[in-house]
Structure formats: C-alpha cells, structure tokens
Amino acid sequence: MQKKLVQSSLAISAAAALGLSGALVASPAMADKAPQKLNVQSEAHVQKALSGVEGVNAYGTEGGELSIGVAKKTDEIKKLEKKYQNIKVTEGIKELKPYAKNDLVGGAGYLVKAGEGGGVCSTGFSGWDGDGKPVVLTAGHCSKIINEDTNEFDGDTTVDQTEKPSISQANGGEGFQASGNGVVGKWGFANFGGDLLEGADQNEWPKPSESDIDFAVINVDESKYNVKNGITDWSTADSDDLSKSTTEITEVGEHKDGAISKSGRTTGKTEGKVLPRSEYDFDYQNVGGRWVHGFGVTAPIDKPFSQPGDSGGGVYQGNTAVGVISGGGDLDANTSFTWVADLDHSLEESGTDFNLEKPGEETPEAPAAPKAEDQTIESEGKVKGKAEAGAEVEVKWEAAEGEKGTQAKPQAENGSETVTADKDGNFSVEGPKAEGDYNVTATAIVDGQESKTTEFDVTVEKDESETPAPAEREISIDPKQIAASDFVKEDNGVTITVKGFDEGEKVTLEVANGPEGVEGIKLDETANENGAAAFSIYGTSAENPEAYLGKYDVEVTGDNDTEDESALTGSFEVVADEDGSGGGSGGDDDGNNDDGNADGGAGDGNDDDGNGDGGSDLPRTGAELTGLAAGAGLLLVGGTAVVLTMRRKNNN
Questions:
Q1: Where are the alpha helices (DSSP H) in 341-451?
Q2: Which phi and psi angles does 545 have, rounded to 5°?
C-alpha cells in the first residue's frame, strides 16, 4: 500500500505543477514557518503533502482535517505534523496483508503421490527453518510408500498439492481434491520408526531407540505458498481459506496430562485427554510394524481424536505445539486411542531448527509496565495510573481475601475495563461499587505487545452520606396462644416473622425452651430483599394434640450478627382446647424483653405489601412436631413420644 501511495503522489504532484501551479502560494506566514492549513478538499494537495512520506498506512479526510495512521511517528511524520495544523496522526496502525487462499497453516490436508496411486495426510505446524526458509512439520510415514501386506518400504512418496478445504472430510466432503494452488514443496528430513518388527517372537524384535520417530519436514515452495503461524479450527473451510480462523502457536513444548487438541483434514478440530503414565507407562508404540516414540491420547469412541488421513496433523495444548498424529485405533468398546509423535523429542532427534517466527523479523519491544500506587476511592470512584501515551490499558479487579481486614461485601463483583492512556500517559477507569479491599492489575498493550502486569491494591470506602440507617429488628409471633386442636392443622400452626436483617443473610430460628424433646431444634431461612424471613411451626399428630401442650421459647439470629447484637426472642403457648381461643392477633415482639413475651401492639402480621411485617409473601421454613404412640419405642413424654422433623414449605 505504501508503494502505491507514493507513486500516486508523484503523478498527481506532476499534474499540479503543470495545471495547478497557483494552488499553493507562499505567504508571509509560510516565510515565518508557522503551521499551514492544508486544503483537504483537494486530493491533489493531500497527495502532494504526503508525497514521498514513508510509513503512512491509512488516511482519510473529514471536517477539514486530514487523519493519517502510522505504525510509528518517524521524524518525517513529525515534520509533517508540524507543517500543517489540520493533520491528525494516529500511531499503531500497521500495514495489513491480504488474506490469501495459499496461506499454509497447521491442520490442512495435502496430497502425496505414490507411484500410480497416492494418499492424503495433514500438515502439523508451519514455520521457518534456521535459514528463514518456510517449512511444514508432519508425520514421517506420509513420506513412505508402505506395502500393506509386509509393512516394508517400497519407496518414497512425493509431496503434491494441498487439498481443497471445502470438500475435505473435515468439512463433510469426500476429500482428495487438489486445491489448484500448486505443489506444496519437497521432502526434507523424513523418518518413520526404526527397523521393521518381524516374526512372531517379540523377544527377537529390535529394541526401541530414541531415534525411532515418526516425523518429517516439507520444504515449502514459497513461490506458491505463504506459511503462516497458527493451526486451523476448520470453521472457515467453506471459503477454502483455513488461515482465516486459527489458534496461534507461540512455542513448542512437552505435553502435559489433561485436555489436548488436534487439527486434521479428516476429523477437523478434536479434543481428547492425554493418557497419564499411571495408566499407560510407555514411551514407544508399535505403529505399522515400527517403534515410534511418543504418548497416548484417548477420546470417546463416537468422537475419536483422529482417523485415517489425520496423520501428521498438529497436536497442541493451549498455544503450545506438542506433537503430530502418528497412528490410532480403538482402545476398547467405548474409547478411541491415538499415538502422538512428541514434537520436542522429534525435533531434537532430527536436528531440525524450527522457528515459529521468521528469523530476522524483529518482534516489537514490549511496552513498559503501567505505574499505579495503592489507592483509596469512594464507590464508583476512579482508579488511576500512568502508562505509555496512547497505550491500551486493561485494568482488572477482584475482591481481596480479607487479609487487610476490610473484606469486600458479598455483593462485590469482579470486573475489568480497557481504556486508552492520554497523550501524557494518564489513564483512569471507574472502579468497583461495593466497599472493601480489591486486588487490581493493569497491563499495557502497544502494537499488539503486552507489558508486564502491575499489581496494586484499591480500597473502596463506605459512603456514609448515602448509607441508610439499619432497619430496626423485630419479631412477630402469630398467634401467641393456640389451642392444641388448631396447632395440629398444617394451615394453622404458629407463624414467626422477623425483619431487619441483610438481604440474602442466613437467618436461624432455635427453639430455646419448650416441652421435653423439642429444645435445640433449629430452622434456617434466607432474608428476602426487604430483610425479612418467616418460619412456621405446627404439629402433625392430629390424633393426639395434647402431646404438644406447653410453652415454646424461640430465638432468632442472623449470620451477619455482631457481638453487640442480641438474638430476637419470643414465645408462644399451646394450650388445651378449653383454655385456648384457637387463634391470635399477632402483635410485634421487639425481641428485647428477657422473658420473650410480646408487648402486644398493633402487629400487622398479615400485611401483604412485602415489607417484612407479615409472612404472606415469604417462604416459611416449617417445623413439624410429630407425636407418636408410646409403642413406637421413642422418648416417652407422659405416655407420648415427641420428635421434630423439618421440611421446607413455601406458603405465599
């Protein structure tokens, strides 16, 4: 693009010299070297201004201003910026390279010729050798013509064209159709295992050797193909350009236990698990009658990790290349098995110098890490720092573990935001909302290169001016006295409603005192958005209601209670039918009387506005008091056993 821009500028400038010589006339302001205003309405003037200026990768005009994009401000660009007052320069705009269907990435299919016949394999990883020449790594057995009856080598194959992705088996086609882009290249290094394992007596087989690898290098014809870092995920196969969607490969390394991925022309991108040494303690596998150094991978039988034609396909974990497909089969009725030639070992044994970046191409220097101090802010206040001017800065925060003593509230959420540092390098983002301590990181990104991460702490202070006074805690018991015959009716019973807790707080009711066998029973509920919760207690033995006679003292506490907060207390009484009214008007107990008796008042326990005064809109945790006959063999209380069971009950 740059070359085209310069050529156009020269041509238009020549035209301007012939026919538009009066367009730019020197003025006293120019003589004083003051900034000029470029006539951006004239393309000829724009091109003349940019003529011969290198490094302009994008430009446009709007509102009387010329905007140009450059990778980096050179001295020439700075002079241009000073010369014209209406030129805006944006750094970090790189020259783009067009996508091309002859970009060669890992996981693509390629054809091989074997005499009058042929076959198809998959590319593993693309890169460059030590001399900067493009190469592709694949499986060594793809380079051999193998006699299917004897496993002997009958010669070498020759590399042919890449396979057309849109009709590959990985894309649902029949495959084996050439792309038309030309022959990929020629075999360089190639090796498939060691000596042939012959005879029925395995003790007579040759012993495996470190050099028994299934590995080959294709020297790519760079007049026909561009090698490109990455391994395809096959999502763009319909366009016949697999390089449009790839996973970047940043290093070659040793495989690890756990999840693993592969890309190949038969099954596309697949997932599997490395077979750990504890289950398969082998470094060598018999593949096609020869030992091959590597490791095993398993996958479900209906979703195999590899199939024929995937040979040579790239095997990777994250962004690390770890191997190429060597062979496979079924481990059992439910599990497929693949043997992977480990790449780090194969490269070492073959003496191959493989690079994921072309030697001699400089990688942009990583920017300096942002600077940020520990800071204290108000809710939604600004978290601030400094970085390189124009850098993209990613700021992330998460609630601290509480080691500083101001642990963030439960509603605290982790978050992140990316902003651009201004011309002076300053940046700021809106911080967390919930009060407490946060661990924060900041990373600068310039020209696609990330800086080291800066760590610092941020404390969000409580905003006293906007914090409402805590709601007064109250307890309401309805009824205070209930006839035994009514107590054993599930729809009656006793309802205990509390309020004044935090939303989402766990609230616990305990029967502190009561008839024998009931003390110590606990019920749990969660406070609603209004800080209220409700419980219900009733008997289940209608045939023996007298078993529940007596006074019940209850205490209610919350998980967020402080040391100076007392439990809410109250009581109710189950009386004989002739002594009770069978109901009650409720009444609010303020929880502060020592004997647990409510002081009456205008209790509105049936309020349906959801404000916590009543239980009509609250789920109630129910406690069933179950009375059994003496013959049940349980704890006897006056000839009747009393036990307590719990269940959750949603009554609205």
A1: 343-350
A2: -65, -25
Average of per-residue pLDDT across 554-561: 91
Q: How far is CA 197 from the centre of its chain?
A: 47
Cα torsion 343, 347, 348, 351 to 10°: value is: 170
- 3-class SS at 30? helix
Tokens of 388: 């390189």
pLDDT digit string, tens, across residues 126-138: 999 999 999 999 9
Greatest alpha-carbon pair distance for the chain in Å reads: 122
| Strands 533-539 vs 620-629: parallel, antiparallel or unpaired | parallel
Q: Alpha-carbon distance 463 to 527, whole Å? A: 24
The confidence score (pLDDT) of residue 428 equals 94
Higher pLDDT, 223 or 593: 223
Specify the residue for token string 């196969």: 237
Amino acid letter for position 67: S
Q: How far is CA 320 from CA 230, 261, 484, in A?
A: 10, 10, 74
What is the DSSP pairing of strand 454-461 with strand 375-378?
parallel
Is the link from the previous residue into 479 a cis peptide, with omega within 30 of 0? yes
pLDDT band at 81 (very low <50, low <70, confident <90, very high): confident
For residues 522 and 21, the model is more confident at 522
Q: Does an H or E element contain 439, and which?
A: strand 436-446
Average pLDDT over residues 84-101: 66
- What is the amino acid identity at position 167? I
Cα separation values, 573 from 100, 551, 596, 644, Å: 85, 4, 12, 17
In order, the DSSP letters of 487-529 are HT-TTSSEEEEEE-PPTT-EEEEEEEE-STTTTT-EEEEE--T
Residue 519: is it exposed, middle or buried by C-beta count within 10 angstroms (0-12/13-18/19+)? middle
Spatial neighbors of 197 by CB under 8 A, at least 6 apart, are 205, 206, 286, 289, 290, 291
Q: What is the pTM of this model?
A: 0.46
Structure tokens of 511?
A: 């029967």
pLDDT digits (tens, 9 = 90+) for 401-423: 765 555 656 667 788 999 999 99
Distance, C-alpha 163 to centroid of its chain: 34
Instruction: Round to whole Å and give the CA distance between 540 and 441.
Output: 58
CA pair distance 214, 610, nearest whole angstrom:
72
How far separated are the first and last CA of the chain, in Å rounded? 71
Which residue type occupies 45?
H
Helix (H, G, I), strand (E, B) or coil at 443: strand
pLDDT for res 56? 73
